Amino acid sequence: MNSSIVMLCGLSGLLLASPALAQDPTFQFGKAEEVKDVKGVEWNASAEFGLVFTTGNSETTTITGGAKAGRKEGDNKFSAELGGAFAQSGVRQLQDQNGNGTIDNEGEIVTVTTTSSRNLTGKLRYDRFLTEHNSLFAAAVASTDEPAGKELVFGGQLGYSRLLYKSATHELAGEAGFDYSHEKLISGDPVSIFSARFFVGYKGALSASTNADASLEALLNVNELDTPTGTASAGEDTRINSKIGVTSKLTASLSINTGLEFKFDNKPAPLKISNLAAGFTPESSKLDTIMKASLIYSFF
Fold this sequence. Notes:
Blueprint: H1 3-16, H2 33-36, E1 42-54, E2 59-73, E3 76-94, E4 109-129, E5 134-145, E6 150-166, E7 170-185, E8 191-205, E9 210-221, E10 225-227, E11 230-232, E12 239-249, E13 254-265, E14 287-298
Antiparallel strand pairs: 1-2, 1-14, 2-3, 3-4, 4-5, 5-6, 6-7, 7-8, 8-9, 9-12, 10-11, 12-13, 13-14
């Protein structure tokens, strides 16, 4: 079992061990009103799951899932989240295995399996509320994304959060702080990135049973990086993460969520390709997107 799986299993174990967030698993930011009326300790939890599976002439497996947990006490809030996606497809191809120049038997029709998505992210966060609109936060993050060339990414965040606007149906929050990420690449030496972090998040009610949320996070490196694909000066390894989602309640405990995620890395990791010519190091794609539909169950 490699180090990435061990660390991420540890995060997921810590999450699932908490009897913990009766909210849909979308992005979260700290709000003082979440803890101002809490007497003693309050726990809540929810989980989501999506699946597409086909066999026969088209063999595909696509799985998305996530879970969230939270604990509130006084002016303190602890939260944990785990999410990931896996996609695999099998394509039937012709291979002239006997070398006679023709395809002349069933054994020369083979299925080649390709994994197009395999990513997992875990996050632990603590918020300390100073006033109704202001708070400080600290977070630990770990992830893996093999198709993007990253065996393991781990690090932490510190910063200040402010509730910028709030009405009966809309909320807007902003965060500013610091991010540290250590990337263990599948090909090449590890990279440590120190970044300024900026975040803005929105939540709104579209109807009595339907909510929308959106967020945008920007990470701007402040140190020069020596990466396998070349040197990146300060600000050149910009990373941007964005989410848009709509959640509708089906019952008191069950909801359906549709969402779209964007992940941009201006200095992506090198591709995992064998037999490359000396001096040639191709990069992974700079932009990854995930569109998903999931069922969400709130435990309590």
